């Protein structure tokens, strides 16, 4: 008996559609949203969100600061709990330490600002001499005497240092917001113990979101550790150098160098201006030049060359992205936004980029060291294998049962 091979089914249903035919049917089904309109809508959404953040910056700033503090101290809290401490004791002890440090810093800044005001009063005559000398030099260059006097008054060292003192005084007088930040820290720290359970529930529905948020917390902690270590090194070196050169209030400028170290790219310039101007008032341009040279050697090398490499490796952001983020968040949230620019950028990146597999190409634009195409393909294959394994576990072992823990995400009747 002859056996014949079954003939191929020539029906149209068995023939897969070609790419042009599929594209034609897609276009016939209805036109999509034009890409230009999508870009315009996205830009409008960004503008509206930025305006909203700017309008409620009084609330967003302290809330973000409390969140970053909780992320930073959470490993210490878990370590104390593993040591046998009750949860309430660990939370209360950490809050006491944090607010003790804030109050101590506020008292130190207030005392230092009062000393700075007295020092400026003693050198007011020297300031007037510098203004007159600068005005004469501008007049010799052909500038009108009236205009030269106005320009000289704008760069009055006495006024600049007093304005910096007012900023430091504003940083120190945070007593009005301490109660608000204390309440935020208390609630956030007390509820941090249930974060892992919440993340497990979210992971069953949005695994990419949980991975992105975990990366955000790791990157934030790495950034804080790196910045704090380098800030302490810079503060100690600057304080020692200023004491050797005889600059008044050297400890205050060391603390300022430590605080401004959290401001990326331009923090060292902000920390350089006050001691340089004070050196100009007390010791002349030679001493001011010496301060500038020492700061450039110490701070520029450490903060501008060494630290950005470690920060880029720890948070995955390029130097250009951190600088643009500094300008944006400082405009939105003020001085607090400049201090929290990098953590805020990491949060936005985690929610909008890392949590969306379709937006992974943006990582090549934001990252400090873009991955190679081979590593991207390898990561994609690993992600596909993990997704396949999760789907297989969801289907069960052939009996239709759900995996363990899946009922947590299933709504009950």
From TrEMBL:
The chain crosses the membrane at residues 37-56, 62-80, 87-111, 164-190, 223-256, 287-306, 326-348. GO terms for cellular component: membrane. InterPro entries: AI-2E-like. It comes from Actinomycetospora cinnamomea. It holds the Pfam family AI-2E_transport. It comes from the Bacteria. PANTHER family: AI-2 TRANSPORT PROTEIN TQSA, TRANSMEMBRANE PROTEIN. Residues 1-28, 370-413 are annotated as: Disordered. It is a multi-pass membrane protein. Its main location: membrane. Belongs to the autoinducer-2 exporter (AI-2E) (TC 2.A.86) family. Residues 379-393 have a biased composition (Basic residues). Keywords: Membrane, Transmembrane, Transmembrane helix. This is Putative PurR-regulated permease PerM. GO terms for biological process: transmembrane transport. It is found in: Membrane.
């Amino acid at each position: 008996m002859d056996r014949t091979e079954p003939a191929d089914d020539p029906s149209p249903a068995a023939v897969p559609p070609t790419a042009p035919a599929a594209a034609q049917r897609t276009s016939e089904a209805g036109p999509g949203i034009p890409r230009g309109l999508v870009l315009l809508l996205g830009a409008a959404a960004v503008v509206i969100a930025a305006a909203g953040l700017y309008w409620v910056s009084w609330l967003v700033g302290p809330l973000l600061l409390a969140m970053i503090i909780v992320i930073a101290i959470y490993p210490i809290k878990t370590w104390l709990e593993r040591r046998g401490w009750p949860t309430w004791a660990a939370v209360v002890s950490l809050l006491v330490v944090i607010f003790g440090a804030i109050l101590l810093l506020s008292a130190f800044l207030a005392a230092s600002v009062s000393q700075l005001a007295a020092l400026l009063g003693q050198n007011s005559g020297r300031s007037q001499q510098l203004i007159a000398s600068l005005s004469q030099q501008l007049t010799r260059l052909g500038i009108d005497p009236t205009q030269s006097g106005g320009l000289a008054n704008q760069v009055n060292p006495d006024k600049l240092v007093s304005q910096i003192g007012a900023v430091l005084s504003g940083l120190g007088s945070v007593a009005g917001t301490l109660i608000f930040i204390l309440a935020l820290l208390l609630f956030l720290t007390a509820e941090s113990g249930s974060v892992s359970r919440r993340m497990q529930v979210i992971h069953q529905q949005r695994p990419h979101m949980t991975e992105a948020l975990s990366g955000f917390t790791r990157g934030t902690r790495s950034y804080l550790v790196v910045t704090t270590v380098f800030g302490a090194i810079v503060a100690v070196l600057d304080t020692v150098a200023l004491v050797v050169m005889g600059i008044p209030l050297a400890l205050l400028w060391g603390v300022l160098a430590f605080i401004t170290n959290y401001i990326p790219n331009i923090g060292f310039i902000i920390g350089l201006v006050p001691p340089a101007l004070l050196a100009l008032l007390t010791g002349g341009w030679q001493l001011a030049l010496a301060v500038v040279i020492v700061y450039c050697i110490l701070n520029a090398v450490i903060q501008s060359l060494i630290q950005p490499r470690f920060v880029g490796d720890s948070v995955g952001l390029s130097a250009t992205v951190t600088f643009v983020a500094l300008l944006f968040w400082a405009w939105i949230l003020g001085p607090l936004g400049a201090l929290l620019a990098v953590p805020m950028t990491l949060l936005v990146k985690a929610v909008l980029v890392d949590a969306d597999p379709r937006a992974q190409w943006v990582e090549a634009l934001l990252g400090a060291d873009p991955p190679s195409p081979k590593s991207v393909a390898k990561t994609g294959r690993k992600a596909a294998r993990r997704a396949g394994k999760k789907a297989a576990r969801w289907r069960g072992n052939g009996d239709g049962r759900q995996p363990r823990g899946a009922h947590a995400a299933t709504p009950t009747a």
